[in-house]
Amino acid sequence: MNKKQKKMLRRILIAAALMIALHFAVRALGDRIHEPVWFFLYLIPYLTVGYDILLKAGKGIRNRQVFDENFLMAVATIGAIAIALINRSGDYTEAIAVMLFYQVGELFQSYAVGKSRRNISALMDIRPDYANIERDGELEQVDPDEVEVGSVIVVRPGEKIPIDGVVIEGVSTLDTSALTGESIPREVRAEDEVISGCINLSGLLRLRTTKEFGESTVSRILDMVENATSRKSRSEAFISRFARVYTPAVCLSALALAVLPPLFFLLRGQSPDWGDWVYRALTFLVISCPCALVISIPLSFFAGIGGASREGVLVKGSNYLEALSKARTVAFDKTGTMTKGVFEVNGIHHSSMDNEKLLEIAAHAELFSTHPIALSIRRAWLEGAVFRDDGEPAEKTEHSGRVLDEARVSEVKEIGGNGITARVDGKQVAVGNAKLMNSLGVAYHDCHHVGTVVHVAIDGAYAGHLLISDLIKPTAKEALRALRAAGVTKTVMLTGDAKAVGEAVAKELGIDEVQAELLPDEKVAAVEALLGKKPEHSVLAFVGDGINDAPVLTRADVGVAMGALGSDAAIEAADVVLMDDDPKKIALAVRIAKKCMRIVYENIWFAIGVKLICLALGAVGIANMWLAIFADVGVMVLAVLNAIRALFTKNLR
């Protein structure tokens, strides 16, 4: 408990002890002490436990914001005291008990909300306290805000990476679980990019920072989580509108209950019991307090967003969480979303020489190119790729000892959109697509496999071709099955890749529809067409890698950026950011959203249902103040406990 909560608990205990003592004193002493004395004695515990409620009610009246729970509690308890004064009973226990139990409920609610916030803070405890700068051979701890872009920082084992950067020295493993929910450590070495918030587990790392602390991943994630509650869902907006209408309505109803029935009896010539009807009206007011709805609904969304954050799913607002729960159509980008986005050499066909020799020549010809396909060819050679006689890949050699020798390469000429030509070992080599072969007058063989084909010609003669493929993520199929189990009825792939490649990937994964060879603006048009066909009251979500899909992420009902940590485009454009590359997180995000909304609706129906029953009982005189306390405080406590369930997501994985 914090200091404020401890102070409240002391006030409650003191007031409860005084109330019990006075209750027995009234029974024991009775008429021996005059009524005004009892009144002033009872005011002590009443004001001890309820002075802040009275002050808040007074401020509300002064600020013309009358109808809130403080006003209802003040009117109800002061009215109960007034009835006791009129009846000269000398026992004001009921009025104090109403205020006492209301404060108990408020204390419990404050503790529960605080606990959920602490749980979320602990789960997202990724904010670094310092950065290590090396000066004169000594490490000096400085505020991360003071570190400039391009500075070299040192991260020792056990420390958090404070700022995004690139490893310039060292080998280590990183714990990324606080960011991605992934328990398997990630290995990093020189030239690898690392993001802030990860914990360095083993070796010492030297990093060159690539961003200021305020723009680094950890800062942007924390900012996103902290501001998520500012975007209200329709359910929250409904509760706010409901409370503004409901509170004055029940106040007028209570006034009518106190006045109209007695007037009716007077008109019929009967003598009404004004005290009984006023008591009923006051009970009606206590029952009507909408605390359970006003507190539990925002808390449900807050807990849902926090639970999602723990699983590596950042939701920018409760409105997006509510929308995600209604997702029935999901469209995917292909590269980087359902596939790894990393090209690999998966075959060598029609080779006129040894397969590895052809790969070696192609790798040297591509030595100075920065194109992803060139990188994949060089990587295949350096990592010891081996191919069988039929051109299919075999197991890589563990210690290949292969190197790329710049001295063997000269006269390099890159031809945009076609490929590259170079002289390797004195031979003229051309590596590229069919357009390059046609321009050189080299007859080539088509490939019947799906993928990118890179032809190789040596001294004007065709030497064979390499097959480059983007690998499907190992969890992609399982992710599609999980989405269907979560209620998604239609899946679509939108890709800029060749039609044959897109259709092959879609068929392997079981995706319902594929649209290929799309430019970015054509993807937007495709999403707009899908929006027009989606089922009524449902939502279309688009999932992309967040770098080149920003327009589509923005246009969809819900834009989900996957594996986009550190990508400014993703964080800005998407409504939901998945912090790793696992497609299964898409279905997990939908399940978390559905659970959260289920809890929200449970609380709405439970709170309103109990309130209506108790209001009816109070109006006919069956319910007393004690039942009113249960209807108010009890329902609020149960609703808050139910709301906190949204924080727990283990059973949804």
Can you tell me about this structure?
By secondary structure, the protein is an alpha+beta fold. Among the domains are: 1-123; 131-162 and 164-210, Calcium-transporting ATPase, cytoplasmic transduction domain A (Distorted Sandwich), CATH 2.70.150.10; 340-471, 3-Layer(aba) Sandwich (Calcium-transporting ATPase, cytoplasmic domain N), CATH 3.40.1110. 50% of the residues lie in helices and 18% in strands. It contains 20 helices and 24 strands. The strands form five sheets. A seven-stranded mixed sheet has the order 10-24-23-22-11-20-21, with helices on both faces. The protein has a six-stranded antiparallel sheet with strand order 2-1-3-9-4-7, with no helix packed on it. A hairpin with a 3-residue loop joins strand 15 (409-415) and strand 16. Helix 8 (274-288) packs parallel to helix 20 (625-644). It is elongated and about 120 Å long. The model has no long low-confidence stretch (mean pLDDT 82).
**Name of the CATH superfamily of the domain at 340-471:** Calcium-transporting ATPase, cytoplasmic domain N
Low-pLDDT sequence parts: none
* Shape annotation: elongated
Major beta sheet, strand line-up: 10-24-23-22-11-20-21
Q: What proportion of the residues form beta strands (DSSP E)?
A: 15-25%
Task: Provide tags for this entry.
20 helices; 653 residues; seven-stranded mixed beta sheet; elongated; six-stranded antiparallel beta sheet; Calcium-transporting ATPase, cytoplasmic domain N; alpha+beta
